[in-house]
């Protein structure tokens, strides 16, 4: 049995479980960084808040606790009986240059202190390194990782392969493939901290996709240094399962308050909208002047991050991860650029999206044309075939599915059996009546003031529909704006005709369209 089990998916995000020597960790999971010497929030509090795994630094542990940690184990040193992940010190390499310890010795130490998920000593590429240098770092990390995994006496310990390469996506892919081939059961993607400091969210998204595409779907992927509500939703949606960061404490040190759409200076806050136990029992000025300000702010920051992770988990369960992620991306224009990365990789986010969902898909803007459900619906219509020789296009009626609408029923009667009736939808494009109850045609709700009109995917679908079938005639109502706009794109070789009117004087307005 593998170490990782996936139970639910949406987009490329998943809900799952990682089995470790110290219990199961539900994912997606935020993994708080715990300092092995000076920890602001007691690890007991972290456990009590529901964090099942923490990460600590094996290099600092080695320097400060040495043999003691080998004797009693890392769990006793930090006082945490859940899963403990150890970073080998790669971040210190990034910050201060080299370390005075060899990868093999570091690996042996991580084994002897009994960490549940260990990371071999790596050479982080960060962001902004010239390609040649980054390439050297990737090679070096791969060689060290190989030596580590080859000598590993596994015994339930999970080794996570450190993927490097930074913004050089081919290097990220090569690094990830190399580690997967060595047999690492988990992967850890390096150094997005610098990406985030420079607001390079789109580059971070590209890096995650490059890594994820290069490794088997069954492997959990950890993202280093990226536990912030701004990045959590989209990183999970792109396939990250766990992520750590020390931001809750680092930000608190500088009086910074994390919330769902950014980080604020405590000085500038006049209202605390968060319902956590810190915010609900303090006013902003009490928080600012409290002698325990650092601890309180750290605690609030943890609650804010936890709330973000719980929100993402719930969104995956509901099949509403798309809506959740897009809402989050609007917190900052640079974050919103991640939409372009999704547009570049549409089939990637489709991979984990269930074909049918319990809940209606919500459509708001043009962005929703990129939704997996919308794309797969278009694909289905593009291969639709009928023996009918005429096509009738009409605006979508109020009733859903369309074939239950009185106006549509009457229209069908008037045009006759040899006519394929299709309704026009701003998002789903062209809906043959027969496909009117396939998800999400009858299970969506769209804002009526921001519809995209006749969008490019709809025109493409129309093109395919005409190419696949032998329609000699197209029937529509000239007063129907959607139909008239669409018909403009129909080849001249196809005859155009109006929908026949009903002669019966008693007919209702609705029947006349
Ligand atoms: Zn709070």
What is the share of helical residues?
40-55%
Oligomer: single chain
**Class by SSE composition:** alpha/beta
What is the C-alpha radius of gyration, as a whole number of Å?
28 Å
Strand content: 15-25%
Bound molecules: zinc ion
CATH architecture of the largest domain: Alpha-Beta Barrel
Kindly identify the CATH topology of the largest domain. TIM Barrel
- Spatial gap, N to C terminus: 61 Å
Q: How is the main sheet built?
A: 8 strands, parallel, barrel
| CATH superfamily membership of the largest domain | Queuine tRNA-ribosyltransferase-like
In total, the number of strands is 20
Fold and architecture overview:
The chain folds into two domains: 4-246, Queuine tRNA-ribosyltransferase-like (TIM Barrel, Alpha-Beta Barrel), CATH 3.20.20.105; 361-512, Rossmann fold (3-Layer(aba) Sandwich), CATH 3.40.50.10630. Helix content is 41%, strand content 18%. It contains 22 helices and 20 strands. Strands 4-5-6-7-8-9-10-11 form an eight-stranded parallel β-barrel, surrounded by six helices. A five-stranded mixed sheet has the order 17-16-15-19-20. A three-stranded antiparallel sheet has the order 1-2-3. α7 (169-182) runs parallel beside α9 and α13 (293-318) crosses α14. The chain is elongated, with a radius of gyration of 28 Å.
């Amino acid at each position: 049995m593998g170490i990782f089990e996936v139970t639910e998916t949406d987009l490329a995000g998943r809900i799952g479980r990682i089995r470790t020597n110290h219990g199961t960790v539900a994912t997606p999971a935020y993994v708080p960084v715990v300092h092995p010497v000076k920890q602001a929030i007691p690890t007991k509090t972290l456990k009590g808040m529901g964090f099942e795994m923490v990460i600590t630094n094996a290099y600092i542990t080695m320097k400060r606790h040495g043999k003691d940690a080998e004797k009693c184990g890392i769990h006793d040193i930090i006082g945490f009986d859940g899963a403990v992940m150890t970073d080998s010190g790669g971040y210190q390499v990034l910050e201060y240059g080299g370390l005075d310890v060899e990868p093999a010795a570091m690996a042996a130490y991580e084994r002897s202190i009994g960490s549940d998920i260990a990371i071999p000593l790596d050479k982080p590429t960060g962001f902004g390194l010239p390609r040649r240098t980054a390439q050297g770092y990737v090679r070096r990390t791969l060689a060290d990782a190989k030596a580590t995994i080859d000598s590993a006496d596994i015994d339930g310990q999970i080794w996570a392969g450190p993927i490097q390469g930074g913004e050089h996506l081919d290097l990220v892919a090569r690094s990830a493939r190399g580690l997967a081939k060595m047999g690492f059961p988990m992967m850890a993607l390096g150094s997005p901290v610098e990406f985030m400091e420079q607001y390079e969210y789109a580059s971070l998204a590209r890096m995650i996709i490059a890594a994820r595409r290069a490794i088997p779907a069954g492997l959990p992927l950890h993202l280093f240094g990226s536990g912030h509500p701004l990045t959590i939703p989209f990183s999970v949606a792109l396939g990250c399962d766990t992520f750590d960061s020390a931001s809750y404490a680092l930000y608190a040190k500088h009086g910074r308050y994390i919330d769902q759409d950014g980080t604020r200076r405590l000085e500038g806050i006049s209202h605390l909208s968060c319902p956590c136990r810190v915010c609900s029992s303090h006013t902003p000025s009490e928080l600012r002047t409290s002698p325990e300000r650092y601890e309180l702010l750290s605690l609030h920051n943890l609650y804010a991050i936890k709330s973000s992770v719980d929100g993402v988990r719930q969104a995956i369960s509901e099949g509403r991860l798309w809506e959740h992620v897009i809402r989050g991306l609007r917190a900052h224009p640079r974050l919103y650029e991640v939409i372009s990365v999704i547009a570049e990789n549409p089939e990637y986010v489709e991979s984990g999206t269930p074909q049918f969902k319990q809940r209606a898909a919500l459509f708001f803007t043009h962005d929703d044309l990129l939704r997996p459900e919308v794309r797969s619906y278009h694909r289905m219509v593009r291969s639709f075939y009928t023996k009918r020789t005429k096509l009738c296009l009409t605006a979508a009626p109020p009733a859903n599915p369309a074939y239950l609408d009185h106006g549509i029923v009457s229209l069908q009667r008037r045009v006759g059996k040899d006519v394929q009736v299709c309704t026009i939808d701003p998002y789903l494009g062209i809906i043959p009546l027969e496909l009117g109850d396939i998800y999400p045609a009858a299970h969506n709700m769209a804002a009526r003031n921001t519809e995209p009109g006749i969008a490019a995917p709809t025109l493409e679908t129309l093109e395919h529909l005409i190419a696949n079938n032998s329609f000699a005639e197209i029937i529509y109502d000239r007063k129907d704006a959607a139909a008239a706009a669409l018909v403009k794109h129909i080849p001249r070789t196809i005859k155009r005709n109006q929908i026949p009117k009903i002669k019966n004087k008693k007919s209702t307005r609705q029947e006349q369209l």
